[in-house]
Amino acid sequence: RIAQVMEASYVESCSQVSITNSKGLCLAKENQWTTLGACVLAKDKDDFKSASEVELIEDLDAFDLSDFVKRLKEKAVSKLHAVSVHSGHYPIIIDRSAMAQLLQCVFAQFHGDQAAKGISLLSCALQQSIFDEKVTLIDDPLLPQGVNCTPFDDEGVACQRKVIVDHGVLL
User: Fold this and answer.
1) Is this prediction's pTM over 0.70?
2) Left if phi > 0, otherwise alpha if psi is -120 to 50, otherwise beta: which for 32?
3) Considering just the CA atoms, what is the radius of gyration of the chain in Å?
4) Among candidate residues 5, 2, 56, the one with its CA nearest the CA of residue 31
């Protein structure tokens, strides 16, 4: 029932940063990652639905392409002939990719420089509840498998794990 592969991508990336100054600072970091992405169109009679998947690949030799394709196919086909639900309050579990897309909409508002300039919509919400109490957001630039994680920032200052939202409250 997959009618078309609308997009496919394979990306290998590597970045290197070195910072050296006259006060003895000498830092270097390197990030490498590989991603595979695809978008397909499922069709059944007059119903068409698309789905996409992106995978960060740590070990290309261990990567299961068949599993990737199976998940993508199931995601697209499961959307066919979907019906609307009645308006109401429902308990939900948000898929990780859906949550990432939602966070992208507000991500810039969490940048400290935006708040310092007074142009963040959240600059007046410090220590206030901005999400449900079940939501905690953590910025951890030291995650071992994180994409673009780094031990230091662009000025050479050591990075550390930061809780940005704790039980719904902006810190």
Assistant:
1) no
2) beta
3) 21
4) 56
Distance CA 98, CA 102 (A): 6
CA distance 110 to 120: 8
Which of helix, strand or coil describes residue 114? helix
Contact 62, 85 (CB under 8 A): no
Contact 29/16 with Cβ under 8 angstroms?
yes
Q: How far apart are CA 129 and CA 169, in angstroms?
A: 4
pLDDT digits over 15-31, tens only?
Answer: 888 888 888 888 888 88
30, 15 Cβ separation under 8 angstroms: yes
| 151: DSSP letter | S
Please tell me the distance from the alpha carbon of residue 168 to that of residue 128, in angstroms, as a whole number.
Answer: 8
Return the amino acid letter for 109: Q
Cα 130 to Cα 43, 153, 167, distances in angstroms: 40, 27, 10
Helix (DSSP H) and strand (DSSP E) numbers for the chain: 3, 6
